[in-house]
Amino acid sequence: MTEFLVAILLGIVEGITEFLPVSSTGHLILASELMGYDAAQWAVFNIAIQPGAILAIVVLYWRTFLAVFKGLLRREAASVAFVRNLLIAFIPAVILGLAFGDQIDALLENAVVVAWALIVGGVAILVIERLVRTENVLGIAGVSTGQSIKIGLVQCLAMIPGVSRSGATIMGAMALGIDRRTAADFSFFLALPTLTGATVLQLYKHRDAITGDGLELIAIGFVVSFVVALVVVKAFLAIVTKHGFAPFAWYRIIAGAAALAWLSAR
Q: Any idea what DSSP says for residue 178?
């Protein structure tokens, strides 16, 4: 299999899984292993193509971004609270990412960690869905400062590959009493600074190892993940509205168990 085809396939995986509570990084690691490639070799690529999926959020929610920008110019309370909450939730990831970057990079090479994290995360989703009662929060601006800090701390769990950034933030928000739609929106918008920052950091750290061919592969994965994510986000919201998060939880448990069995049998 050529590297260009691998880049396309990984771009598809990224676009499908980035906003689902199933761990895009975990799936990219497992996909690399499944295709017989060294996960460490593709670790930078896997992170660098994430902004492609993030761009899909910018396109799908452009009216929201425009309204917030105009509101900031007018110093409207709702727009200020919107940006403040996202920045507050972003800070813990910055601190821990800079402090434990090498340890996080090491985890990105461990497929067994991914498999176990998928299973444990799936069980956690089922428990939260069954036990937690949520209330309408009236959008991201309605989330309190304290809730934003806690969501940011929970997001840091996703530094363990397989946990899922979107899953951690959505479930963390719901555990704080925030309704499903607001929790999902908060997760989508928080992805912009979080994943963009992670990409910039990784590209800077590994700048000497990235060749012209490497940048070409990243560009391919970026475009593919963007196109796929455009379709997936709307489908995800429709499934969550009708069925909740349980289908994704059971998928995680089954996929994690299958991955463990496959890794053990190799």
A: B
